[in-house]
Design goal:
286 residues; 6-stranded antiparallel sheet; alpha+beta; Phosphatase 2c, domain 1; single chain; 29% helix; 5-stranded antiparallel sheet
């Protein structure tokens, strides 16, 4: 199976200072699937390197899915993720995550666009989806473009935190199509937004409070197109082994479909630091 990465990070673990605030563990896995000869998905994460950085910068996770039918989709997804990670690591300490992600995704869009234009004489089409999740204190900030998704699994329920930027989903929102018609449409995977098509892109962001025992799941459509949200919740509720859970989800998607690349990141919240905000600055709640 594809690329697997597992990291545990919580107070008292080897190399992790005690009382570091937010504590997490995560696993990620990417697989080419059963049909495609190469993987156009790309995963990335940026971890705080010091105890103060847990509070000043936090964590960043991201999944990108190079758009099929475009040249060099695997290049587009890698460029997008690496631009996000580099920008996050260089961010000003304490910068609010939602506007930071908005800025970084726009920077990734420009980088993908320019990489495509410079790829060969006359340029080449290059595009990718992206979903990113930044974590600090007791907050998760989400930014996305395209149909890669982020779910929150809490107390046995999986809630979708993103909205697919697809033509049929936009038509459902406008009342042109019903949900049933959209699910059966041959155009349901046609994106209405992606990185790299133009110099500017509409980035959608949201922010959510998180609690201990929550699990955040980021994935490409190769996973969520084959495995239902209720199955995410069932597998991850009470599961202590994120590595096995990631492998199980990818294997299940391959068994049911496998026609697309499949990528997943699983992030379990072990501890949070409860804070309030005053004039854009956090203060600790007792």
């Amino acid at each position: 199976m594809g690329r697997l990465n597992v990291v545990s990070s919580f107070p008292g673990a080897s190399g992790q200072p005690k009382s570091s605030g937010l504590a997490i563990e995560f696993a990620q896995l990417s697989d080419a699937g059963r049909v495609r000869g190469h993987n156009e998905d790309y995963l990335g994460h940026a971890a705080p390197e010091t105890a103060p950085a847990v509070r000043t910068h936090g964590w960043l996770f991201a999944v990108a899915d190079g758009v099929g039918g475009h040249d060099k989709g695997e290049v587009a997804s890698q460029v997008a993720i690496e631009t996000l990670m580099q920008g996050f690591r260089k961010a000003v300490a304490g910068e609010p995550h939602s506007p930071l992600l908005q800025r970084l995704v726009q920077a990734a869009n420009i980088q993908v666009y320019e990489t495509g234009r410079n790829a060969s004489p006359g340029g080449t089409a290059m595009a990718t989806t992206v979903v990113a999740c930044a974590l600090r204190f007791d907050r998760a900030a989400i930014a996305h473009v395209g149909d890669s998704r982020c779910y929150l699994v809490r107390r046995g329920q999986a809630t979708l935190l993103t909205r697919d930027h697809t033509v049929v989903n936009d038509q459902v929102r406008l009342g042109i199509l019903s949900a049933k018609e959209a699910a059966e449409s041959d155009r349901r995977h046609l994106l209405s937004r992606s990185l790299g098509n133009d110099l500017f892109v509409g980035v959608e962001t949201s922010e959510h409070q998180i609690f201990a025992d929550d699990v955040l799941l980021l994935c490409s459509d190769g996973l969520h197109g084959a495995v239902a949200a209720a199955e995410f919740a069932s597998l991850l509720t009470g599961s202590t082994d994120l590595t096995s859970a990631a492998r199980h989800l990818v294997a299940l998607a391959n068994e049911r479909d496998g026609s697309d690349n499949i990528s997943v990141q699983l992030i379990r919240i072990r501890e949070v630091e409860r804070v309030g905000m005053y004039r854009g600055r956090p203060y600790k709640l007792r």
